[in-house]
Amino acid sequence: MTILTRRRVGALAGLAALGIGLTACSGGNASTPTDGDAKVVWSTWGSPEELKMFDRVQDSFKEANPDVELVFQPTPSYSDYHSKLLTQLSSGTAPDVFYVGDDRIASVIRNDVLAPVSSSSLDEGDFAENVLDVARWEGELYALPNDVNPDALWYDKEALKAAGITEDPAELAANDEWTTEKFFEMTGKLADAGLTGAVYWNYWATHDSIMTAGGGQVYDDEGAYVAHTDAKSVAALDEYAARFATGELKLADLLPEGSGEDTLLVTHQLGFLAQGRYTIGTIRGAGVDESLYDIVRWPTPDGKAAPTGVAASYLAVSKDAAENDAAWDFFSFFLSAEGQQLRLEGTGNAVPSIAGTDDIVLADGFPAHAQTMLDMRDLGYSNFATEAAVPDLSNQIAVEFMQPLYEAGSGAQETLDAVAELVEEKTAS
Amino acid sequence: MTAAPLVAGGRPPARRGWRERDKYWGMAFVAPQALGMLLFTLLPFAAAFLLAFTEWNGFGMPEFIGFDNFADQLTSPLLGRAILNTMVIALVTVPIGLFLAIVAAVVLNKIRGRAFYLVLFFAPVVTSSVAIALIWQQLLRADGVLSGSLTRLFGIAPIDWLGDPILALLAVCLVTIWASLGLNVVIFMAGLQSISPSVMEAAAIDGAGPVARFFKIILPLLSPIVFYQSVVAFISSLQTFDLVFVLVNNAGPDNGTRTIVYHIYDLGFAKSQFGLSSAASIVLLGLTLVITAIQFGAQKKFVHYES
């Protein structure tokens, strides 16, 4: 029988500690080449349906780079993805290449965990400058937009007709007659007809677009929050809030499961829906007549086009993977014109961010005014760096300040004053 | 006759040698658990306690800021809402859950085929809480089975149980009671079986009916178990997280289901404010200690221990 000595007990305890230590260290950055091949771990968020759009770009990359093993680590939910990513970054176990949301990218950059994109073979001049600002820090660019999604107003011609509306919003916009007054006249008629006027998502692009389409400012050129001092911003927000409170306008986030924004749109119960290009999938998936739907930009007081928010996601390379050539190869291919073509053509869910690929949006002929999405991309702006530099600040503003305003229907000045105070407090250091 | 001399301690030397060896075996068997406790409980607790006095976003070095995080959290309306919601969950689920479990245990104790019913009651206990939350989410959505049935039966408009702050909180309570019932029933049944049949027979002979026997004999004799279960269930309720996270999509409408642990998670992992998050977790610890102390104080009055 083996006698258990003090030394053996010590050895056992040591082995146990080593085992636990090794276990704790596992799951780290997997970029270390195995079997002589390079390995690239990359991650993003999305539902199983959304993740399918990455199949072709991954297959194409593998075909061109047979010596690179590509490991895909998706997470279903956007918020869970970022919680996980931040934990991985702080513990040095992040993937080599990863998506970052536009409300998070600036804060991630400031933690010095990303490699500058100057190591990639891409030219930043090929990307829309207005959506690069948020990914720049002290003159260096740390991420590039995968693609973008300006929230166009998707409208249902049948719903408009049912509400007695005879004018076509896209035609009005083409003649610079698409005014806020005209828009509210239509949403009012839709509400009177028992339909929902318009639906928006409760996030930064909605509030900011309301204010900038109304002729106001949100942040000034120095990055200071100025919406509360801009009479046009306050007035625009008050106008929309009053209509949210009556139910003429609604927040998609608060619609009940099963009768959400998509259902309302495809069952002709909704006039306008502020959403990105992914709405094509919703309409086609429902099997409804495509010709009944079109898009228009946000209305403005004078009917002319104004800049509005452009949602974007960014691709970045971990600082720890900076020496991994394969990571940069994948990064460059993924964002290249070819990579974006593979991801976004057909029923793609976004608008390309790189020059020379606009045909992806126009080729299909649906919606009829698809050019509007490209115009909105070129005129619009990304999330403001000041706001995106504080984790979850955009979400906090949306949930704790804007949503109560929309429910109350008035008090834009007080709300914006409180937001200004919050932004100042959060960005003081 | 001279008695045989005894060694010190009254044991032969060989026997003492075995005891020495047993000690090391004991240490070896306890070591993994002790190591786990140290790594996954004591060290994180110490780290959280220290982080509560710092500002840290997960990167770089934490910055010491004294009691600022506690001042922030103790005046935070969000933490106030989280404490209120958590207390509602605890105060609704613990008494109702324990009462239903006792009633179910008394009934099951008297019927045939109790094993079958026990399996049914116990199934949620061994089911993943995420799976439970997802199934109930399907039942409770506005276009779910429950709303659909109510609409068909009574012609009322579909109810969005999870879209209203109050209904969503009630939904969390309902699912919590349902999910924890099985474990409580099993424990109470074990307690019931330890009650001597002669006591019940004596009570019956003295003319005590079923209700009198339940309140005058069964409940007092079960009171130590009820007390233990109430302490455990209350602490468990204070830690409610996974159910609200999955069932009601994070904090629910208007923070209607924001619980303390969700608040801690939100601050730490969504907002990267680990100092504030740690301070909130210390507040939860304090709250748990106070409530448990109150429960222990109350037991002197309500718990009956057989001498």
From TrEMBL, chain A:
Q: Transmembrane ranges?
A: none
> InterPro entries from the xrefs?
Bact_solute-bd_prot1, SBP
**Which keywords annotate this record?**
Cell membrane, Lipoprotein, Membrane, Palmitate, Signal
What's the short name of a Pfam family annotated to this entry? SBP_bac_1
> What protein am I looking at?
Sugar ABC transporter substrate-binding protein
Q: Which organism is it from?
A: Tessaracoccus lapidicaptus
Q: What is the lineage of its organism?
A: Bacteria, Bacillati, Actinomycetota, Actinomycetes, Propionibacteriales
